[in-house]
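Regression test attached.
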Amino acid sequence: MSVRQQQLDDAALAESGVEIPLYASSKAIYPQSVEGRYRKIKWAILFVALGVYYFLPFVRWDRGVDAPSQAVLVDIANHRFYFFFIEIWPQEFYYVTGLLILAAFSLFLMNSLAGRIWCGYLCPQTVWTDLFLTVERWVEGDRRERMMKANQPFNLERFTELLLKHSTWLLIAWWTGGAWVLYFADAPTLVYKLATFQGEPVAYVWIAILTFTTYFLAGFMREQVCTYMCPWPRIQAALIDEWALNVTYRYDRGEPRGSLKKNAALKSTGVKTGDCVDCQQCVNVCPTGVDIRDGLQIDCIQCGLCIDACDNIMTRVGRPTGLIAYDTQINVERRQNGLQEHPVKLIRPRTVLYATLIVFVGSLMLIALATRKMIELSALHDRNPQYVTLSDGSIRNGYTLRLINRQAQERVFLVGVEGLAGARIESSGLPADSSGRLMVSVGHDQTLELRVLITLPVSRVEDVESQDLAFRAVEPISGAVTTVADHFFLP
Amino acid sequence: MTESGAHKHVDAHSGMGTTGHEWDGIRELNTPLPRWWLNILYATIVWAVFYCIAYPAIPLIQSFTPGVLGWSSRQSVNDELASLRAQREPIVAALSQASLDEIAHNPQLRTFAMAQGKAAFANNCAPCHGAGGGGSKGYANLNDDDWLWGGTLEQISATITHGVRADDDLSHAGMMPAFGREGMLDEQQISNVADYVRSLSHLPLPAQANLAAGAAIFSENCAACHGADGHGDMELGAPNLADAIWLYGSDKATIVEGLVNGRGGVMPAWGGRLDATTIKALTIYVHALGGGQ
C-alpha cells in the first residue's frame, strides 16, 4: 500500500475519532504476475545482471606466472585491484572515485531522460526482489492464491510450501553471499576451501552477513527499502522535470474512469467518459503496491509492469494501448488542454550538462589510465639529521627512495642523482654502474624501499642552506624514465 | 498550545494526523514510525541488556561489573602481545644465535634486526642521540664517518654493552683532563694550544696566534692521547682533532672550555638493561645509519 494511501487511511481513521497508532506496520502486497514488453526487458536484465554477478569471479585473465589469473579481483592482502587489463594500486584509488562520480552523473542523466530507470530495472534491490517474487509465485501461486493462503489456517501442506519457499530464498541468498566473497580471493580455490570447511573465518562471516541481508531485504523488506530506507527517491523527486519521460497514467485519456458497462451507459447519454475501465490490474501487478493513477509518487519505482498490465486489458477490451505509458508531464497537460503534443525532447540543458560531465570525467579517467607510468620513484629526505658533516668536511644527506615497478617482470633500475655537480650516490651493499648510478633490482609488481646517501665532496660545498637536486630512475628494458626533485641541505 | 482532542485534528493538505502541538497556527504532523524501525530499536535495547550482563559495563564506586564472559581489555592486549611474540619467536631465536657478521649478511635477519633496532633506538638512544641519531653538542652524531670508540660491528656492540665512563668494569674509560682547573696549563698556554688545535683542521686563526708555542704545549700535554699529528686514538676515545667533526664545537671558546674543565661525557652501559638480542639489533641499526667501518 502506498504512502499516500496510508495517509488517506490515517486521515479517515482520525476523522472517525479512532486514535492514530504510533507506528505503521507494513501492509502485505501480493503482486500479480504479468506478461508484456517491460516484463521481457526486466527478465533480460535480471538474467544478464545476475549472470554477471554470479559467474564473473570465475572468468580468467592471464597476467603472467606470478600474478593472479582472475579477471576481477579485489586483492586486499596484497593491496591490489584487478579488472581485466587494469590493475589499480592503493594510491590510484582515485579511479574508484572517478567511477563513483560517473555512476552518480549516469544516474542523473538516466533520471532526466526517463525517470527512475535505475530503480525499476537495474537496482539490486529490485532485481533480487523480482527473483524472490518469482520463487514465491512458483511455490505458492499467483496473487489470488497467495492472498487466500495468507488467511487460511496453518496445515502440513502450507508448512511444506513455506519450507520450500524459504529454503529456496535462503539458497539464493547464500549463493549471493558466496559469490560476493569470491571477488576477494581466487574463486576456484576459495570454492574448494569453503566446500571443505578450510576457508578463512572472515569468508564465512561475510557469506552469513550477505545471506542474511539478501534474504531479509528481498524476502521481507522489499518495497519498504525503496520507500523508507533509500535516499534516491527523495533526491530523484527534486531532480525530475516535466520534460522527462516517466511511467505515466494518461489521465487526459483515462478520466473519468468507470467500468465498461457504466461508462458505456454514460456515453450513450452524451457524457464524456474515459478509457480507464477501473479494472485495478495496474495496482495488482505493482511490486510496491501503488496506484499509478494517483500520479508520480515516491514509492513508485517505475518498473513499467503497470504498462504491461494496462496494455493487456486495453487490447482485450478493444481500445488502443498506451493508457499507461512512458510520457512527459508536459504532454499530458497539453493534451488535457487540447493542445498539440510536444515531440519528446531528449536534448535539454540538463541532459547536455550531465552528458558533458560524464564525457569529461570519463576522458580524464581514460587519459589517466593511458598515461599511467609503469615505473615510479618518490624520495623522502631524512628529517633528522638533515645533513651530516663527514670528517673530511664533505656533506652527506640521507634519503629514503621508493621505487615502484608495475611491470609483470623483475627489472633492474638505474638510479642516479642529477642537478648537483659532484654529488655521489651510494647505498650500502648495492653495486653501481660505470657512471656511478645504483643498480637496484625491483621485483615484479612491487615497491622497493631504499635508503640512499648523497655525498657532496668538500671541494663542492658552498655556503648556502640548500641546493636542488633530482633523482632519476631509468629502466633500460622498457626505456621508462622517471625523475623526482628534492633538496640537499648544507650547514 | 492545545492538548485536548489533540489526536483528532487532521491536516487538510496532507491528510495526516497531527500531534496536537500548535504554534501560531502551525501544527506538527504525526507521521507514524514504521514497525520494522521500532523493532530494531527494541532489539538494540535487548542487545544492550545482554551486553551489560556479558561484558564489563556498569561503573561501581571502586570497580565495575566484570561481566559473565570475563573479558577484559588488558587481558586482550596481553593475548595479542603473546601471540605476536609467538609469531616472532623463530626469527628472534635465529637472531640470538647468529653472530653480528652473519646478521649483516643475511637479508632476512638484517631486515628484522633493522626494524627491531629502530624501535629500540627510539626507546633508549634517541633522548641523547636524537631521533635519527644526529646527535647534538656532547652527544655523538652516529650518521657520520667518525667513530670515537670505533665503528666496526664489534666495537659498536662493545660500546653499547659496556657504555662510556659508565658503571661497568669493561666500560670505555679514557677522559680529557681539566688542564686549566688542575693548574697544569695557564691561561696563555691554553689559548696558544687552542689556536694550534684549530690550525690542525685549517680553521681561521687570530693574527697574533703563537702556533710554535702551541705546538710545543701540544706535544708535551696532548700528543700522548690525541697523537703527535692530532689524529686521535680510538682505544682511548681521544677524538681526531684534525678533521671537520667536533663533538662539542670547533670555536675557540669551546675548545678553551674543554681544556680548562676537561671532558668526560658519559654513556650508560646497556648490557644490564637490554637483552643481548636487542643489543645486536641496535648494533646493526647504528652501524647502518651512516655506514660504519
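Expected vs. actual: identical. The two ends of chain B are 89 Å apart (CA to CA).
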